[in-house]
């Protein structure tokens, strides 16, 4: 089984364990803030399932109907996660509003907070696994799932502090108040995840640093050519697409020009994981005297 898929499957297991712990903490205490924390964990499980499906689809090879592969499936999952984070925040705001109208005393708060703390620690560890491995494996779905869990960890810390403060002071209104504040933070996190994922669906170019690396690699390995121009890039899941025009001397044979292209493609594959390179060869009369000049 692919490592990315194994990690995505692990997220479902972790999500179910954390959900059970948080619902237990709510059942023990009756805290609306802890209930809100549990509601967010239901979204964690749903998005983990969505991420697993998307990663499985994205791993499929190109076919007749999808000649460029299925890489963008992960971005759809990441957008869904962002939307569901926002839905979780709205549910929390609803519960907080009910708590404002009728604040309730908490039962066995310390036991509930301890249970919630264990769930948060597990979430924090898995968040680190998802983000670090997602970046290493170039999986937008895993990274988005990790950022989602990070928002859950942050909200859980806020919930624990709020419930603890409510117990110490006796101000039960702090319970729903903290739930509402946490919901606003989750809304912001959902927007960030959604915006980042939409950029991939809209064929956003690679970062300036990566583009500079691509240009330098082309210039250093295009010996025999004259220049490269109209360089375009986009990323889709694990794949990075690069296409450009390569100007060569008019006296160069097709075989010689092809050898230069092969050399450039090999070099780019060495610095950009899963690079998909398309090169349009032009005679020197098409030179535009801009772009990348060959070393």
Automatic annotation (TrEMBL):
Location (main, coarse): membrane
One MF term in the entry's GO annotations: ferrous iron transmembrane transporter activity
Entry's Gene Ontology BP terms: intracellular zinc ion homeostasis
SUPFAM superfamilies (alphabetical): Cation efflux protein cytoplasmic domain-like, Cation efflux protein transmembrane domain-like
Pfam family for this entry, one: ZT_dimer
Positions of transmembrane segments: 7-29, 41-61, 73-93, 113-131, 152-171
Signal peptide coordinates: none
Record-stated family: Belongs to the cation diffusion facilitator (CDF) transporter (TC 2.A.4) family.
The name this protein goes by in its record: Protein p34
Organism per entry: Siculibacillus lacustris
């Amino acid at each position: 089984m692919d490592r990315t898929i194994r990690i995505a499957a692990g997220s479902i297991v972790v999500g179910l364990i954390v959900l059970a712990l948080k619902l237990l903490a709510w059942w023990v205490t009756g805290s609306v803030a802890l209930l809100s924390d549990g509601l967010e964990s239901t979204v964690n499980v749903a998005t983990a399932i969505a991420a697993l499906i998307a990663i499985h689809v994205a791993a499929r090879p190109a076919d007749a109907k999808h000649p460029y592969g299925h890489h963008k499936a992960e971005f759809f999952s990441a957008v869904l996660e962002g939307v569901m984070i926002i839905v979780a925040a709205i549910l929390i705001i609803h519960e907080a509003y009910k708590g404002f109208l009728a604040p309730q005393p908490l039962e066995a708060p310390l036991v509930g907070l301890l249970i919630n703390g264990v769930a948060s620690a597990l979430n924090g560890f898995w968040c680190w696994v998802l983000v670090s491995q997602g970046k290493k494996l170039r999986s937008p779905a895993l990274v988005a799932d990790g950022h989602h869990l990070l928002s859950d960890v942050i909200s859980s810390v806020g919930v624990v502090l709020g419930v603890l403060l409510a117990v110490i002071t006796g101000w039960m209104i702090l319970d729903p108040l903290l739930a509402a504040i946490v919901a606003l933070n989750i809304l912001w996190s959902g927007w960030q995840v959604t915006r980042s994922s939409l950029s991939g669906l809209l064929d956003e170019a690679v970062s300036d640093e990566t583009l500079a690396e691509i240009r330098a690699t082309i210039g250093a390995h295009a010996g025999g050519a004259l220049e490269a121009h109209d360089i375009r890039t986009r990323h889709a899941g694990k794949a990075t697409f690069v296409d450009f025009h390569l100007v060569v001397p008019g006296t160069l044979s097709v075989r010689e020009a092809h050898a230069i292209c092969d050399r450039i493609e090999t070099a780019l594959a060495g610095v950009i994981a899963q690079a998909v390179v398309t090169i349009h060869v032009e005679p020197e009369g098409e030179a535009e005297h801009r772009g990348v000049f060959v070393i």
